[in-house]
Amino acid sequence: MGGSDNVYPQGRKVTQWQIVDDVSWTKGNHGVKFGVDFRRNDISSFAAGPNTSGAVTINSMTDFYNGVISPPLTLATGPTGGSTYSQSFANSTHQPIAYYSLGLFVQDEWRVSSKLKLTLALRADRNSNEVCQHDCFSRPADGSFASIDHSVNTPYNASIITGLHNAFPSLEAVGWGPRGGFAWTPFGNSNTVIRGGVGIFTDLYQGLIADRFITNLPNVSAFTLGGGTLTSSVPLSPDVAGNVLK
After folding, report:
1. pLDDT in tens, 41-76
2. What are the pLDDT digits (tens) for 99-111?
3. How many CB atoms lie within 10 A of CB 104?
4. What's the mean pLDDT in 13-17?
5. Does pLDDT of 77 surpass 50?
6. Domain boundaries along the sequence of the chain
């Protein structure tokens, strides 16, 4: 009920700025090129926003008519609706996220002869950790959900680390990308050129990965109400005492 307004706010606003500069230098049979490629993303993430306004799922015409949600189990005089009300509670529906990628490279195009040209290059990429400017990330204290203590006597704050600035515990400091290639003209000045190459390439991970860390417990808590008791219903109207919002 209420359309799809409960899925908002959602999505992200992204500001990206980039600096790219290359310098080329020719010396004899060598063409040397080096440069820099820097990119930064500033993201306003609304990952914690969906369902913060609540959603009613009506599974019974009787519930719809009466304006209530009722439990699914049937007793002799009890309701049989099975309707539900769900709502999420977020510490904040908007979180500022940022990360960057810095790439440096050097390349040499060496004309060995009139028939053969070799290209040798090395690139170094630094992909930063994704950060939350409001320290909104959380993750299990022991590294994974399977490894934490699941005893009912263990408090949440002993199992979950909250208020983290970085999304990941650590990242590879530098990704090295050596590359090499050749262009060979076997018959001299002709229309036949054989080319080949090999290299290691890196890429910046997607920013939406941070959404999973933003919505970790206890940043977002979700609850679903399925009727009051096995023999009672809960009114939907906020003007009625004991309604779903209370």
Report:
1. 999 999 999 999 888 888 888 888 888 888 765 555
2. 999 999 999 999 9
3. 15
4. 93
5. no
6. 5-23+37-104+127-176+206-235
Segment 206-234, tens digit of pLDDT: 888 888 888 888 889 888 877 555 457 88
In 3D space, the residue among 163, 97, 168 whose CA is nearest the CA of residue 136 turns out to be 163
| C-alpha pair distances (Å), 62 with each of 80, 208, 230 | 9, 42, 16
Is the separation of the CB atoms in 115 and 184 below 8 Å? yes
Query: What is the average pLDDT score of the chain?
Result: 87
The residues with which 137 forms a beta bridge, in sequence order, are 164
For 36, the token pair is 């820099």
Q: Which distant-in-sequence residues (6+ apart) come within 8 Å of 51 by Cβ? A: 6, 7, 86, 87, 88, 222
Burial track 65-99 (b if 16+ CB lie within 10 A, e otherwise): eeebbbbeeeeeebbebbbbbbbbebeebbbebbb
Higher pLDDT: 191 or 13? It is 13
Query: Cα(173)–Cα(192) distance, rounded to whole angstroms?
Result: 43
From residue 33, give the alpha-carbon distance in Å to each of 96, 184, 202.
37, 21, 20
More confident residue, 86 or 189: 86
φ, ψ dihedrals at 64, nearest 5°: -65, -45
Sign of the alpha-carbon torsion through 25, 27, 28, 33: negative
| Burial (CB count within 10 angstroms: exposed 0-12, middle 13-18, buried 19+), residue 185 | middle
Give SS3 for 156: helix
Give which of 80, 81, 96, 114 is closest to 167, Cα–Cα: 96
